Amino acid sequence: MPTITAARPAAYAFDLHTTALLVIDMQRDFLEPGGFGESLGNDVGQLRRTIGPLTALLAGARAAGLTVLHTREGHLPDLSDCPPAKLERGAPSRRIGDPGPNGRILIRGEYGHDIVDELAPLPGEPVIDKPGKGAFYATGLDELLAERNVRSLLVTGVTTEVCVHTTVREANDRGYECLVLADCVGSYFPEFQRVGLDMIAAQGGIFGWVADSMDVLAVLPTTPVLQPSS
Ligand code: C5J
Is 22 within a domain? Predict the structure, then answer.
């Protein structure tokens, strides 16, 4: 089994047949000016450093034949799946559903809601639309992972302390092992990035493991692993 000895709090071994790469919310609404992230007063430039390493990791995971899944946070055009508290919170310059330069903020089908060009999903890669911060809440993700016999997740995306953390916590409670790739997750707040990662690996790995994408790329095969016959 590939093993990442540099992972913290301890070495992380994973079975290529039961591991998937999860790319969380790498959407224009979080990473580009004019979207939801910026409407809350954030510097979206803080997140863009994740695109380079994640592009390389995505290529490596695809070459190795791993299951790759993407998520997008967003709401139906009539906002019926958006709790009023979420809509009203934060005193944003633009609210969810308001028009912006990339279309209506955080609304499914709008340009800003979609994934940045560099990380566009390939045909056949599942894209899970989620109304919440966690990727398991009100989605079919758990069932989809079960169908594919996935038990461990390489977790990437934005933002570290919000959707990445919520998803890792949900996954942990459902029995998935999570390795979070530090250079492929991003926060608008450098201190939240550091503490968010520390919280995952603390207490003997209370939520999972943390490593860098280079450590994963170093142990991934460069040709697809065959799925075991069922
Ligand atoms: C936020 C997310 N930060 N994808 N969403 O609202 O982390």
Answer: yes
